[in-house]
Design a protein that fits this description.
The complex is a heterodimer of chains A (about 70) and B (about 210).
Chain A (H helix, E strand, L loop, with lengths): L1 H30 L3 H33 L1
Helix pairs in contact in A: 1-2
Chain B lengths: L3 E3 L14 E5 L4 H27 L6 H31 L1 E5 L2 E9 L2 E8 L3 E7 L3 H6 L1 E8 L6 E8 L1 H24 L12 H4 L7
Classes of the chains: A mainly alpha (about 70), B alpha+beta (about 210).
Chain lengths: ~70, ~210
């Protein structure tokens, strides 16, 4: 039961984060003025986000292993 | 200079066909660096506590609680990254543009709240510069208030732009140039001869009542 709770929490965080990120990236490319800076910062943000979400997923896996 | 970009290669949404961007101002970089310093301090505190606390607090030495603690720390770091990107987005989307036709202020107030004000550059009547406070004076940034004349009289605000006195001079220079061009166009205007009727009496010579 607690396993499902942790997985649902992770999925909800992931969905909220992805939706928020898409909205921000859309704003940058729709209303931005100097797009080169926009592209560089967006790439940096995406790389950082993937890295942190991977660590979060690994943490989740270790929690699930401990509860089993 | 990072905060003031010039050049014809700059394009913005809503730009007219024959409109040319003369100069683009952004807020002083100080307003980007300050929140980033706060984020960095918070990040250092988190990383230090993630290293020190599990060795000193007995509850965190339990593998399950320790794993949840790591999960929460990573989640907060993810939130810091999100906040940093949001701060940068606000900085990037706020812009003050001077073109050969208009002055525009674009402000991203919230994620779904955007405000765009514009005025004809030829109508610039008065420009006021306000440099107030310790950081403004030492780092040389301030507010520029542009008042326009004419039927659509309004005041545009360039908030916390770097080198505000220089900005004022540049705007005045472009406004003067625009007025000179308009004046020149008005004097050299040649009306179409087929449409023009300089002496209407010549045409109506036979309009006598018989």
């Amino acid at each position: 039961m607690s396993n499902i709770l942790f997985v649902i929490t992770y999925i909800l965080i992931l969905i909220a984060y992805i939706v928020g990120s898409i909205v921000m990236i859309y704003h940058i490319f729709a209303f931005g003025i100097n797009n080169k800076i926009g592209i560089v910062s967006t790439v940096a943000y995406i790389v950082g986000s993937i890295f942190l979400l991977t660590i979060l997923f690994m943490n989740l896996q270790s929690i699930l292993n401990l509860t089993n | 200079m990072l905060d003031r970009i010039t050049g014809n290669h700059i394009h913005f949404p809503g730009q007219h066909k024959d409109e040319e961007v003369k100069i683009l101002f952004r807020r002083s970089i100080f307003f980007l660096i300050m929140p980033y310093i706060l984020n960095l301090v918070l990040l250092i505190i988190l990383l230090v506590s993630a290293t020190i606390l599990p060795n000193n607090i007995t509850i965190l030495q339990d593998p399950f609680i320790g794993a949840i603690f790591d999960f929460i720390i990573t989640l907060i770091i993810l939130f810091i990254l999100l906040t940093a990107f949001l701060t940068w987005m606000h900085y990037y989307l706020d812009a003050y543009i001077v073109t050969n036709q208009r002055i525009l202020t674009i402000e991203q107030i919230d994620l779904f709240h955007r405000k765009v004000s514009e005025a004809d550059i030829g109508n610039v009547q008065d420009i006021e510069v306000v440099v107030k406070g310790f950081f403004s004076n030492t780092l040389n940034f301030g507010d520029v208030r542009i008042q326009t004349a004419g039927a659509d009289q309004k005041t545009l605000f360039f908030d916390n732009v770097p080198y505000p006195y220089k900005a004022k001079d540049i705007i005045l220079k472009f406004a003067e140039a625009n007025r000179t061009v308009e004046l020149h166009n008005a004097y050299t205007y040649e009306p179409n001869k087929t449409e023009a009727n300089p002496n209407p009496q010549d045409k109506n010579t036979d309009n006598t009542i018989s």
